[in-house]
Specification:
Strand content: 5-15%
Strand order of the largest sheet: 1-3-2-4-6-5
Order of helices and strands: HHEEHHEHEHEEHH
Shape: globular
Mean pLDDT: 95
CATH superfamily: Uracil-DNA glycosylase-like domain
Distance between the termini: 19 Å
Largest sheet: 6 strands, mixed
Oligomer: single chain
Number of helices: 8
CATH class: Alpha Beta
CATH topology: Uracil-DNA Glycosylase, subunit E
CATH architecture: 3-Layer(aba) Sandwich
């Protein structure tokens, strides 16, 4: 099966969504799904690991931290159903990667073109903070996913956690030295892909102005420019 075939990615998705490797994360994601937030009391929560989604032939991959407890852990799709996702999808729409600016649930018609959205950790973590062991236990899923996205040329890292995870994905044997530092707009030529740093679209960053619409748009426009360049050897 070709690396970027929907069938190969669907097979990986089935494995991801059945994962129970991290006891603390399993307990938390399922507790949140049972107790629910009052605003979503009538909804059925996903409550499982969340797979990546988007265009299987994407040249741009966006890597986040982990599903939000009442966002992707509820809807079953990365960045869907929370304020961070509202900000991100609006930016993807403005820059031509998404067909609509908002996404509330997995069946709302959102389609991505030349972009794939995923995360380093697939289960919602307590306080949004996975442990180093949980991160390293989960990273093989992202590494396998990235390997199947055969056209990917640019990896947009949403936050410092995603940047550090991306370095582990792209340098599985040993991290580069000196270690490339994260920053908004920072770039690094990793094996097979160009990494770009972007502040995470969290409410803490967007409400305080640390990340603005022009800032995230500039990163996505730069990612599109780089994606048009020659393919790197992985």
């Amino acid at each position: 099966m070709p690396r970027d075939s929907p069938g190969a990615l669907a097979a990986l998705e089935r494995e991801v969504t059945a994962c129970r490797r991290c006891p603390r994360l399993v307990a938390w994601r399922e507790e949140v799904a049972r107790e629910k937030r009052a605003a979503f009391a009538d909804e059925t929560y996903w409550g499982r690991p969340v797979p990546g989604f988007g265009d299987p032939r994407a040249r741009v991959v966006l890597l986040g931290l982990a599903p939000a407890a009442h966002g992707a852990n509820r809807t079953g799709r990365m960045f869907t159903g929370d304020r961070s996702g509202d900000f991100l999808f609006a930016a993807l729409h403005r820059t031509g990667f998404a067909n609509q600016a908002r996404s509330h649930h997995a069946g709302d018609g959102l389609r991505l073109t030349d972009a794939w959205v995923t995360a380093a950790v697939r289960c919602a973590p307590p306080a949004n903070k996975p442990t180093p062991l949980e991160r390293d236990t989960c990273l093989p899923w992202a590494r396998s996913e990235f390997a199947l996205l055969g056209r990917a040329r640019v990896l947009v890292c949403l936050g410092s956690f995603a940047w550090a995870a991306a370095l582990r994905i792209t340098h599985p044997d040993a991290p580069p030295r000196p270690l490339p530092r994260f920053g908004h707009g920072a770039e690094w030529d990793a094996p097979g892909v160009r990494m770009i740093g972007c502040f995470h679209p969290s409410q803490q960053n967007t409400f305080t102005g640390k990340l603005t619409e022009p800032m995230i748009d500039a990163v996505l426009i730069r990612a599109r420019e780089l994606a048009r360049g020659p393919r790197r050897t992985r």
